[in-house]
Amino acid sequence: MFTFIDVFAGIGGFRQGCELAGGLCVWACEKDKFARQTYASNFDIDDHEFAHDFAKDIKDVDLMDIPDHDVLLAGFPCQPFSTAGRREGFAHETQGTLFFELAKIIKEKQPTFFLLENVKGLLSHKSGSTMFTIMRALNELGYKVYPKVIDADGFVPQHRERVYLAGVRDDIDLGSYWHDLRGPWAEFEAPQKGSLQLRHILEPHDQVSVKYTMSDRYMAGLLTHEAKQAAKGNTFGYRIYHPGDVTGALTASYARSAQSILIHQGEHMNPRKLTPRECARLMGYPEHFKIPVSDTQAYKQFGNSVVPPLIRAVMNAMLPWHYRE
User: Fold this and answer.
1) Which residue, 12, 91, 116, 154, is most buried by CB atoms nearer than 10 A?
2) Which of 25, 29, 78, 279 is catalytic?
């Protein structure tokens, strides 16, 4: 069994996947009160102001309070980095960013492995300078880092490309593991794309509340906006999906911009948005996963999450067998 910490934990997507891979969470940190509510409800921990194993603001964490661990996990926020040709190292270039707080934990606790996740756009942010700074910072901390863009399609019925940074400490001898330039990704196995479709996660039509059906006014507004954008030579995306489809990426703004994933309900009915439970399934969460918050918060939480079954596959690729036994 391996131990891990869950930084910028959200609702526990990393934790869900790592526990399926045989891991034990020893510490977590999440600031958003609604995400904390969902996390605490599902992992039977104390969402208390001073809970030792469930910290709030990472900036207030005493590094000595973080237990030793094998793997650090984090879907870290991407903030502006101050590169501008400087060469003073991560402490200077990332100061004031949340990545800097993450780097401080890595420097102090020296986990054997880490897995970081971010949007694909991180690779091109500021013409690549942000990614360059992150990679150099992690190298300076004594880690080999292997980035890879992975689409969740196949793990779930959703195209969801994210960049993952897998790291191992320089002094760790993995033998034949991570044996080539691809690092752990040589062992990574993904299901066939399209193997899961919307039909696998949708509620029966007669069990979905009419409140999720888009109004005539809403649909008229979409058509009007589409026509205006077309007149300007622009495109405006709203997409209606059928049961045999794979969706685009679920976003944190789905509550107010449901047009990104609308569900077909028949030729003479307006389409509907996904229910929160369907969003949970679309992200790969199990049926028993509790949703104790409002629909608005649930959409935000699932849209910000990682895909647990994908995380399980990544951990199985990253960690040699003796870490998972």
Assistant:
1) 12
2) 78
Helix, strand, coil percentages in the chain from 3-state DSSP, rounded to 5: 40, 15, 45
CA distance 21 to 249: 25
Token code pair at residue 33:
């009160």
Calpha distance 295→291 (Å, rounded): 9
pLDDT reported for residue 163: 95
Write down the domain spans for the chain: 2-188+305-324, 198-302
pLDDT tens readout for residues 122-161: 888 888 888 998 999 999 999 999 999 999 999 999 999 9
Look at the chain and count its residues.
Answer: 325
CA angle 251, 123, 4 (to 5 degrees): 70
Strand partners, 161: 151
In this structure, how many other beta carbons lie within 10 angstroms of the beta carbon of residue 165?
A: 21
Number of H helices, E strands in the chain: 10, 9
> Catalytic annotation on 78?
yes
The CATH number corresponding to 198-302 among 3.40.1160.10, 3.90.120.10, 3.20.20.140, 3.50.50.60 equals 3.90.120.10
Q: Report the distance separating Cα 247 and Cα 268, nearest Å.
A: 22
φ, ψ dihedrals at 23, nearest 5°: -90, 160
DSSP tag of 138:
H
pLDDT single digits (tens) 295-325: 999 999 999 999 999 999 999 999 987 776 6
2-188+305-324: which CATH number, 2.60.40.1930, 3.40.50.2300, 3.30.70.120, 3.40.50.150? 3.40.50.150
- Whether the per-residue pLDDT at 268 is higher than 50: the answer is yes
**Position of tokens 């058509």?**
223
Q: What tens digit of pLDDT does each residue of 83-123 get?
A: 433 444 445 555 557 888 999 999 999 999 999 999 898 88
